[in-house]
Specification:
alpha/beta
Amino acid sequence: MSDFGKIVRQPSLSFRDLSTGQFTPTIWDGLRDGLWQNFSVENWLYNDMLTPEKIAEQKPLFPGIQQIEPGVIWDDATGHIIPNLYHPNRIETGLDVWLCMVEDFIKGLGAKRIGVHLSGGLDSSLIIATLHQLKIPFVPIGLESLTYEFRTERHIQELLIGWGEDGLLIDSSEVPYYHGIDTLPATQIPTGIFKSYYASCRLASAFSERGCDVVLGGQGGDSLLVDPVTDVNKTTFNIGNEFLVQEDDDMIYEPRGIKLMSFFGHKPIIDFLTSARIGQGDDALKLWARKYFKDWLPNELSEYAYFADFFGLTTFGLKKAKPVISELVTEAHEMIGHPMFSAKGRLRFLDQDIYSFEYNEYIRFSSTLAIAVWLKSLKNGGII
């Protein structure tokens, strides 16, 4: 499907005028009046390199206007944004408690039909295994990679798809990373999901076609199942930043009448897993969770551990999209004249060997490209 020429409602994003102290839910009128010309490239690049724990150090993207994104709130005392942290409670644990808690959570959603992202990893598999244990119907849909590197994830997907109903696996090569990045709908600020926008659209449309009005994902599982837990009273989570996927919800799922939710972002579930893992150290392989829920999980997940590495798929899509990227950065220079997008800057930018990227180099490349994609999206939406 194409969303060309549209703009996106972004209810999870708001702004504060630093001179008047007034909040505004949108800056669309300002963008139409030329505010985009005052966008701070330097502040965007600085913000995008911040680690999650430093999210409150974000600088304004437009002069005198502070963007307020999920994960932060405005603090009148400091006159600045601060992290919106959740302090979990210590509660009773046990598999029976878990089942009752999840059952109450699902009932409280009031969903007509529930969808679940089927990734082939532990986090989404735990959601599926719990719903299967509770005999709660759900629709599993995921992107399937047919490459050798993803043979384990693919095996798990093919196994678990039969635990739900009307399941579907979509060949990820049909919607590769960076597909259609010159046709995105307009957003008020650059977005990080541009590289997988159309893949996510394909998933959301499949859920919609099957009548799902709530879709559960495993975002935040790493925070709960990997990081050490020594003391509940000293543990905090930034649900808006670590668990929720608001850009996907705002841009892709909400327009299709679907609520995208993080299963692990439900506060009682955060309380449970934090309480159950007290005394656990760093657990990159999530061995505790594999053992704790082993009676419900397939042996392939309870007895073995593996990592999914999407970087190869990402760089393949990036390489394929280079002609479009060249056009986007050229147009970005015509629009804002920033030296980063000048002929010399473009040559340096496009000549980078993407297959040799280190992590920070890739983030910098993606952050730079996000600006060019955003400017093009404003033209697509008729803002410019």
